[in-house]
Write a structure and sequence with these properties.
MetI-like fold; 12 helices
């Protein structure tokens, strides 16, 4: 009995240690960035005093405001377009016969499992063959391309749980095909659409590799700007830390909002 109790405690202690190490690896970089974002010193290895100057510079320093605007504008536009297109594609795939649906889902999953560097180089070659000038437009197309599969993967499970007779019932009750889609199908898959949109936004705002190969020399988002500055051996403004801290805070706020909303809905149910 004592031996079994000792083993149970040992496994529990090992689990706590492994969990602590995991959280340490995950959250140490975030804690470091949060600390540096309020450090008045521009040197990362020393902390002088608390300041919010770098948060002000996020909106005033021209060296970083341009890349931030590029990053956010691409993320928003690609999210809107890929969410609309991905939802329509998902509805179309769902309406196919089983074998055709499986084939289409396999094709959809290829860009997801494909390494980013392969996707980036492939898109760069395609844009070059089409004589596209690398810049805002090519980055937008690239982000839409790799975001659509994630939207489809989030919408498809909601479509599978949808009652197949709802669309026909809406038509029988006098709805046009457009009205049935707008008033019946879309509201019932809205959670999948929102999840797909959030995934597309996250993938876009976080991307470096594909953007690097499709942006050219003149257009930069935050990640490619940081890479270029560090590659030239230059020091960058600590406003970059503040920007990342703000993105982290917004992400946490969204997660808390969604969880609180689900908890509230669960209590009402």
């Amino acid at each position: 009995m004592k031996k079994r109790l000792w083993k149970t405690r040992a496994w529990k202690a090992l689990g706590i240690v492994l969990m602590s190490i995991t959280f340490l690896f995950l959250y140490t970089p975030i804690i470091v960035i949060l600390t540096l974002s309020v450090n008045s010193s521009k040197r990362a290895y020393s902390f002088e005093q608390f300041t919010l100057q770098w948060y002000v510079d996020v909106f005033r320093d021209p060296s970083i405001t341009g890349p931030i605007v590029n990053t956010i504008s691409i993320a928003i536009l690609s999210t809107i377009i890929s969410t609309i297109v991905g939802t329509l594609f998902a509805i179309g795939i769902h309406s196919l016969q089983k074998k055709s649906r499986i084939r289409m889902m396999i094709l959809n999953n290829v860009p997801v499992v494909n390494p980013d560097i392969v996707t980036g180089i492939s898109l760069m070659i395609i844009f070059s063959l089409l004589s596209f000038t690398l810049g805002f437009t090519t980055v937008l197309f690239a982000h839409i391309f790799f975001s659509i599969p994630y939207v489809i993967l989030n919408v498809m499970p909601r479509l599978k749980r949808l009652d197949p007779n709802m669309y026909e019932a809406a038509l029988d009750l006098g709805c046009s095909r457009y009205e049935a889609m707008l008033k019946v199908i879309l509201p019932n898959i809205s959670t999948g659409i929102i999840a797909g949109g959030l995934m597309a936004f996250t993938m876009s705002i976080d991307d470096f590799v594909i953007t690097y190969f499709t942006s050219g020399n003149e257009y930069m988002n935050v990640s490619t700007w940081l890479y270029a500055v560090l590659g030239r051996g230059q020091s960058f403004t600590p406003a970059a830390y503040a920007y990342n801290a703000m993105i982290f805070a917004i992400t946490i706020a969204i997660i808390l909002f969604i969880n609180l909303k689900k908890e509230k809905k669960g209590k009402l149910a």
